[in-house]
Design brief:
Two copies of one chain form a homodimer. Chain A is globular. Chain A has one helix spanning about 5-10, and strands spanning about 5, 20-25, 30-40, 50-55, 60, 65-70, 75, 85-100, 115-119. Helices cover about 5% and strands about 50% of the residues of chain A. The two termini of chain A are about 15 Å apart. The first copy, chain A, has one helix and nine strands; from the N terminus they run βαββββββββ. By secondary structure, chain A is mainly beta. The longest helix of chain A has 5 residues, at about 5-10. In chain A, strands 2, 3, 4, 5, 6, 7, 8 and 9 form an eight-stranded mixed sheet that branches. Chain A has one domain: Jelly Rolls, CATH 2.60.120. The interface of A and B includes residues 5 and 76 of A. Strand 7 of chain A pairs antiparallel with strand 1 (about 5) of chain B, so a sheet runs across the interface.
Chain lengths: ~120, ~120
């Protein structure tokens, strides 16, 4: 058991759209990601997903609305709900979701990362 | 789906040692708590528990060591491991753990809260 600094972990990587695992518990993973621009529309069939914005401001688009999520705010996307993060600036997010959650919802694109690194 | 401000939620209660649920996903709960002083030694037989310190500095005592956890840091306590949070000042923490996790590990004391409020 040790303290894990979220800021220190964000300092270990620069790639965008490539979630890194910093902790695991109860079959869930805590991941960090740096994101900028538009991601693809996707859904996770069996996994709810929590976004916690650490730095910057993200718009989380749904098919029927868009929600602004700023620093210190969280939002939960229920399983099966299509969503797409969009940002202007680089945004740092913490994700909490089941370990087997695939970031593009199982689709394979240029952005797909098959297995997240542990940092 | 809506953005949930952690700071705004902390503004809704003052009681210490009384976790409040702010979100749920995948059978897990996100809880906020204000803590100060020494809690009791306890363990959760079947649940790993994540502490994320939002404000202040907490010492998480284990039987064989003590770990300082400050703002922006997380620590995971594996199931079955005895632990005890100790703080000088009031500390604000975010907990992530299975919904059925009992904050005193099933013991009933003056501090035991049988069911967490949702805020």
């Amino acid at each position: 058991m040790r303290a894990i600094s979220i800021a220190q972990k964000f300092g270990l990587f620069e790639e965008q759209w490539s979630p890194k695992i910093i902790a695991q518990l109860n079959g869930q993973a805590v991941k960090l990601a740096k994101i900028q621009g538009e991601f693809m529309w996707h859904a996770h069939a069996e996994q709810d997903e929590l976004f916690h914005v650490i730095k910057g401001k993200m718009t989380l688009e749904f098919r029927d609305r868009a929600v602004e999520v700023g620093p210190g705010e969280i939002i939960v996307v229920p399983k099966g709900v299509e969503h797409r993060p969009v940002t202007q600036e680089e945004v740092w997010i913490l994700l909490f979701e089941p370990q087997d959650t695939h970031h593009t919802g199982g689709q394979t694109t240029a952005r797909t990362v098959e297995a997240c690194d542990h940092i």
